[in-house]
Amino acid sequence: MPIKTDQLEDRLATINHFSNHEIGQNRLVYSSTWIKGQNQLIDWGLASGMTVTVDAYGTVYLDVIGSTVPQDVIATGSHMDTVVHGGPYDGLYGVIGGLQAIQNLVSRFGQPKKTLRLISFSEEEGSRFPATFSGSKHYTGFEDVTGIQDQAGNDFDAVRKVAIAKLNRNGVTAGRPTLPESFTELHIEQGPQLSEAACQIGLVTAIVGQRRFTVTVNGIANHAGTTPMSDRHDALQIAVTLINQLRTEALALSKKLTFTVGELHVWPNTSNVIPGKVTFTIDTRHVDERILNRFENRLKTVAEQAAISPVKVAVNRWVADQPVQLDSTMLAQNERLAQKLGLAYQKLASGAGHDSEIMSRVAKTTMIFVPSINGISHAPQEKTASPDLHAGVRLLQASLKQQAY
Amino acid sequence: MPIKTDQLEDRLATINHFSNHEIGQNRLVYSSTWIKGQNQLIDWGLASGMTVTVDAYGTVYLDVIGSTVPQDVIATGSHMDTVVHGGPYDGLYGVIGGLQAIQNLVSRFGQPKKTLRLISFSEEEGSRFPATFSGSKHYTGFEDVTGIQDQAGNDFDAVRKVAIAKLNRNGVTAGRPTLPESFTELHIEQGPQLSEAACQIGLVTAIVGQRRFTVTVNGIANHAGTTPMSDRHDALQIAVTLINQLRTEALALSKKLTFTVGELHVWPNTSNVIPGKVTFTIDTRHVDERILNRFENRLKTVAEQAAISPVKVAVNRWVADQPVQLDSTMLAQNERLAQKLGLAYQKLASGAGHDSEIMSRVAKTTMIFVPSINGISHAPQEKTASPDLHAGVRLLQASLKQQAY
Asked: Which domains does chain B have, with CATH numbers?
């Protein structure tokens, strides 16, 4: 099978062009741009003779079958979806970089002994529906996300089925492949540490645990001019006070505890009406679960204290991902390979959640980071220097070679 | 012309049924429910032989021409539009109550000496487009609102023309009638004072001045997990701090100064991304313009202090209505009539803006309030007891009789 080398940046550009560069990447799971992305990947897999499988959640698997022990699978990959107005590398770099690494190996060393698998997970960000990692959760059999709606009221299962139907064609097998013995995820750091330390490579020791909550404040909508200030039950004013108070609590618990209110909605949201209802999300992360527990307890207490009749405050936790220690043996192997390749590296924990969190429950799992310029991510300005993109692929390639040949 | 008496509540119900009661009244200017409302009013006017005029902004005028001095016009009325999820009486009560009062007079006393005019202004709330009182501003020649868009990007002038076309038919004259010598606006209080004082009638001495601002905070969107708390430019966190600070400033200036943040928007508004941009509105009102000036100066200072590079904070004022003293002679007349009719009344200032503010610049203007149960308004729960609705119409009728016969 003929392989052109170094299609890395061309292929990243091809899929990124499906979104409007002005407003960034918008490959929300099961959207039209997401479907284009997964289909483009399938095209590349079929064109190079790889075995293509798509599961019921839309995760795409591209296999190069092993010669002697095909049942042993060495996997790499990441996710196809993005946040709203996201960047060009989050998720996609691990997918395209993984494909490039596998194809480079096959072109130089021929068929591997073990099966090499590129995985493009359907969804990891939780940006369209109130659930994260639905792709890797399905693949690992950990959980089948279902029965939820997006902000527009679209049903997860309905849009999922419509989208998957558009990935089906000749040469594509529907199904869920066996689990691999190892998984390596190539990803941008999405933080400032590597660029500040001038390292091309980050070897990930652990992934922070994260919890996401939706807080709903029910007050009483009323006229903005005739209702005395002392006689108001202003849902937004209560929410604003809660957010400030909770942020202070978070900073007091640990400087490394991140606290983000990323989404907020107001009803009726018109300038001359006192808001009757507000909802907002809280995203909080730390490597130590005890800190996350303490924050959650404080959140519940603060919310109860704010709920003075007739005001109601409800807290709903919809993400609870535990901190994860990644495989120490693979970490040590990657460290030796990085030294051998002369790549400047650093060990660090990941402040972002990743599919590796879920994969680590079923396979030896490790992650390779490359620097994010100024640490900017989840934004159109997200960028990684070209040499760093290639350095990550080189290390991944060396790791896959060692494991599969 | 045959007039059924006491159609007040039936007619209120007829127009209120154009909206969904579950979510309240939604007759945003030039919307389909607004068009139905103005057309229903035109039907009633034509059916009773009144002279029907519609101006270029969609304000409807129903005249009973005077016998001896038809050029002298005694006007009453209010506005047809509502806020988002509004109540059944704000605006509409003054329109239907005014029509009822005029028709009762004609049925009992025949043609008046002076012309009696019912006015149903197109828009007063400023809830769809960023401008208020566009109907009365056009009628009085004070200002022709133009060149603005609603949140969906619809052009004010375009939707206005489409809507007005749907009010045109046989018997309807297009044009802007001459200005009246007096204007009486019947309206619900929208506050708690009358119900707390157990008065059926409020005689309005003045209307508060109000200013509305939009504050835009530009920060930097970034990843919620990998960006250290110390390294963030979180637009929502800055907005939340500003709102708390400005509220404190407002309360310190005067207990009677109302401060409302009714509308707030977040970009990209997704749970795992630090907000890069936030806009929010401020609605502030007081009877003393000096207090409004002081608040506006504090707002500008506080906004400048919050704009620490790379964060930008912009303040845009889009409403500046001065406090208005209403006509003292008409107030005294209405007080005598209320006493004569044995109605318990109270003099008070209006915390809400009204078309009377604009009309007072061109005609002797007064307002008659009826109680709002629990002071609730601009919400589906807005309610006024049936006897109070009728009491307001009785006083209005007596006032119109005294002026036009």
From this structure: 5-208+323-404 (3.40.630.10), 209-321 (3.30.70.360)
